[in-house]
Every structure is written in C-alpha cells, then in structure tokens.
C-alpha cells in the first residue's frame, strides 16, 4: 500500500520544524509517469503543483472544487498580450466564475436539502439505531429536487450554451494569433 | 470497525505508524455505543473519551485513558451531527519502511517521508482503500489536552498517530479523491504523443464501437449482395460520424460531466483538450465521415447519418435537461445506425431495416433504464431529467414493456422475410431471459436487479445480431454466399471482442 499524505495548510508546521527530514526525497508528480518522462541523469526532483505553477507559460488547470466540481484555471498572461487575447481571457474567466457560482449554489442546496430530508425521514429501530434510508425512499427526494429546480436548470442550460458557443470564435482568433506569434519567433 | 488488531501493536509502536481511526457517528449512534467511542473535536484539538474505549486503542497510556470517564461535549457533538459526518475507528498497520508521501498544499511539494515525521494538520491519502484521512497531531501531543493533568504522557518514544477519518460522501466528484492527480494542478499544454488517446476518449471509443457493430450487422443482415469496399466505407463513415457526435456532445456537457463520478474524467472536463480543439475534431470527422457516406456509399446513408448527428447533438443532448422524453429520442438515435448499414447494402429502406431499427430501439430501454437506475443521485444533482429519477415506476414498466416488444419483433423477423425461422427459435431463449430479468427489475426495482439487467443487455445485443446474421433469409447473389459466411464469422469475432471489452 502506497500512502500519500498532504497537508491541509499551516505551512509553519511543515518540514522546517522537523530537523530529521533532511534526507527526504522530493518526488515529481507533476507528470503522470515521472519514470518515463525524466531521463536517467535528471534527479527525480521537481515540484508538483497543488498550486498553479508560478513560472508556467501556459494556462494551468486545477483540481475540481470540492463543492462545485468545477476546475479552476489560472490563466497565463503573455507579456505581449493583444487586445483580442485579453478579451478572450477575461471572457473565459467570467464564464468559469459564473459556472462555479451556479454549481456552488446548486450543489450546496442539494446537499443541504438532502441532509434535511434524511433528518426528517430517518427512522429508528427498536434499539434506537438509525436506519439508513433505502434508495427508494431517497428517490423521492431526488425527484422533488429535480422538479423544483427545473426552471433554474433550464435557464442555466440556455445560458451555458450561449456562453460556450460564444467562446468559440474568440478562441479561434486567439489560436491564429498565437500560431503567427510562434511562427515569427522561429 | 475495529479495535481488533490493536493487540498486535505493543512491540512495534515506535514509528511504525499505528493509525487509529475513529468513528463519530450521529448522536443516537453515539449514545448507543458509548462504550466504544471517542469524540474528537477538531476545533479545540481535543480528544474526548466516551468511556473505556481508549483502553483498547493504541496509546501510550491506556490506563490513564480509563481514568477519563465520559466527557460530555455537546457543542462538539451537535456540530458534527449537523454535518452528519461519520468517523470510523479502526487500525491500520503501516510498514516501517513504507514511504509516505507528504503533499504540502501551500508550497506545492510532494515529499517522501517516514511516518514519524508527520505533524498535525496533515491529511493522509491511502491508495489501498482510496481513503482520505485527516491526521491529528501525533498522539503523544494531542493526548495532553485530554488526560487530566496528573497523567501526562511521558514517553515520546511511543508514537502512534491518531487518525481522524471522516467517512466521505463520494457522490460529489470534487470530494471523491481517487489519486494524487485529483489534487494537483496541471499545465494546459497539448501533448501530441497522447493526442490519439485523447481523440479516442473524446469519441467515446466503446460507444462508437457498438454503433459501428450495429451498422455492420445491418449491412450483414440486409438481403443485398455483399461488397467489401462498400462495407468498409459505410463502417468507416458511420464511425467518423459517431466520433463527431460524441465530441460535440462532450463540448456541450462540460459542466454537467464535471458533476458526476462516471463522467468526471472526460478529456474536456480535465482540460486535456480545449473546447475549440474538440469542435475542430468534430468538424473534421463529421465532414469526412458524411462525405465518405455520400460519395462512397449512397446518399440515403449519408442523409441518415447527418440526421442522426443532428438528432443526437442538437435535440437529444439539450433534451436531457428539459424533458423526460429524452430517453425515447436517445433510443431513436441508437436505432438509426443499423438502418444505415442496411441502406448501404440495398440502397433503400425495406421493412427489414425498420425491424432491425425497432429491435435496437427497444433494446435501449432495458439497457439504459437499468443503467440509470443506480445513477439517480448523480442525475438528480446534475439536473438530468432521466426517467429513473422523474418517474421510477414508469422507468421500470417501460423497460419491461420493451423487453416483451423485443421478443415479439424477433418472432416477427421470419414473417417479414428478414431471417429464417431458425432465428425465431434460437433467439427465444435469449429474449426470454431478458424478459425474466426485465420482469425482476419491474417487480423488485433494486440495485441488484437493475445491475443484472444492464449487464445482460450488454451480452444480449451482440449475441442477437450474431444469430440474426447466421440465420438471415437470403444471401444476396448466390455466388457471394461464401464471402458472406466469412463476413459473418468475422462479425462474430468482433462482437465477441465487443462483449469482452464491455
């Protein structure tokens, strides 16, 4: 069993306070198969990136948000960013924020209402132990939630389609800009 | 849950990392199990022993634990009750030499380390059981807040780790961490080496494979003469069109796919390809696919392909959020590929083509309704108006109804001159078993019966098409008969492969 540990913050408690840790090995996990990607001469020593790589020359995409499940993106700003590129970046950012906002609200509402439903319908057996609700009992909640949010889903869907499609043309323009820039450099 | 393996730890306590997990259940459970539980308050960093529980856990000082009877801390309990978090108490042995990996969120490092170096505020991810555990301080220090002042733990040599395990609700993909890749950031750079893999994922290789198989079956079963080049071109064209349909579908569904564990690893969700890239891929493959069908096969097939592409991406995909009728539309989408195969062979749509389409159409219901049965929580949260969520009883009865309809259509196949009477006979056991499973799903409606039905549908359709191919009524031109038989054998192999892979 391999175990991976990660820290929930509180930097001051990390290695510096632990003198024994001099001999640790810093391992690369930024690439999916470190063994394959790195040559033999290269030490297996790299930063992995639970925070966006600071020197990245591309956009970086993060882990899904724990509530909204939407992955955050850190946008790379090229030094010679054109107007089109900036507009595109800001538009994407805006869509991302909007998505995150919707799903955060939506999912937290879902979990809260689910919790309330469970609390309200939980039965106890003779010994006082809580009986878990069966999938059939839960399905009543799922149905109500879906029906209750029909309009919000519909509006969201419409908006999302619009936003998603409206990003395509700017994306294409930016692609052309970046390609020409690359060609000029080489 | 338990404390059973604790007796083994005495000798190996130092640095081996005996992990004690705890369970803090809801209030009622806690009251009933007073004797085995400990409470742990994360905020105040204190451990409260319900009773003698500590005596059985690891611990530097079990005796002193016994001295602490029942510490009440209601605020702590209610706090957890509202969250409905459960904690489990059990122990796990971790080998001394086994490296743990520390993941520092702030600095972004992963460090291999011994268990001994772990400090507080760390979380532990065990790949073995995919659990994410939040570590308390080393117990030697955390205990000090718990025990009465006179029984301070003295020996720092006896380290053990108290592990605080929240039983995770895995239904939300964001909190369902399955590997370290689920917590890391990644540069959005296109990796040309993996492009083929990404395209395969983008076009949902398995689904496309099934679509192509049904097209090939349609071609094989139709009465026309067999022409290898037309056969290959129609399969290729259908394959490309299906790839295009699937990538457009994913382009539209990114935020929805993010919401479900089943779909959270799709390329666009993970940002492995850009939306523009996927649309470009779809455009190229749809245009080339439809051109192949139009010029290489015939306009009827190309028309059907274009119609199906539009039906899937423009009607079915948004309809999932709008109305429960999406399943019927989706079934229609699944019914068209065999018609395309048929039309590729004969150039027209005879009754047989519709029969074949009807079989595929009816098959979708037991298949999809059974699949969606166990995904109700996900569909509800992601806003999909699936029959299983909106009207569970309808979902069951429709599945059963179509099992029966499917049996009827198979029996009618010889009447329409599509197959010989042999097909009616040898498809009967398959269909009867499908009906039986459908009936069980209808009566019971539990996860077990739905799963069984779903699994059987995966075997059922390739087997049925194979039987149909074997016992087709007329083998086109007589001199082509040998060739046909060969193709049927080939198809049999493909179908077998498909069954294995699914």
UniProtKB/TrEMBL annotation, chain A:
Annotated membrane topology: Peripheral membrane protein
Pfam families associated with the record: COA8
Subcellular localization, as worded in the UniProt entry: Mitochondrion inner membrane
InterPro entries attached to this UniProt entry: COA8
GO terms (BP aspect): intrinsic apoptotic signaling pathway
Entry GO terms, CC: mitochondrial inner membrane
Family (UniProt): Belongs to the COA8 family.
UniProt protein name: Apoptogenic protein 1, mitochondrial
Source organism of this protein record: Candidula unifasciata
Classification lineage: Eukaryota, Metazoa, Spiralia, Lophotrochozoa, Mollusca
Automatic annotation (TrEMBL), chain B:
GO MF term set: protoheme IX farnesyltransferase activity
Membrane topology: Multi-pass membrane protein
Cellular compartments per GO CC: mitochondrial membrane
Compartments, as annotated in UniProt: Mitochondrion membrane
Entry EC number(s): 2.5.1.141
Any Pfam family matching the protein: UbiA
Enzymatic reactions: heme b + (2E,6E)-farnesyl diphosphate + H2O = Fe(II)-heme o + diphosphate
Annotated GO biological process: heme A biosynthetic process
Keywords carried by this UniProt record: Heme biosynthesis, Membrane, Mitochondrion, Transferase, Transit peptide, Transmembrane, Transmembrane helix
Gene3D superfamilies linked to this entry: UbiA prenyltransferase
Residues annotated as transmembrane: 205-222, 228-252, 272-295, 301-319, 403-424, 453-470
Primary localization class, coarse: mitochondrion
HAMAP family per the UniProt record, alphabetical: CyoE_CtaB
Family in the record: Belongs to the UbiA prenyltransferase family.
NCBIfam families tied to this protein: cyoE_ctaB
Name recorded for this polypeptide: Protoheme IX farnesyltransferase, mitochondrial
Species annotation: Candidula unifasciata
Lineage, opening ranks: Eukaryota, Metazoa, Spiralia, Lophotrochozoa, Mollusca
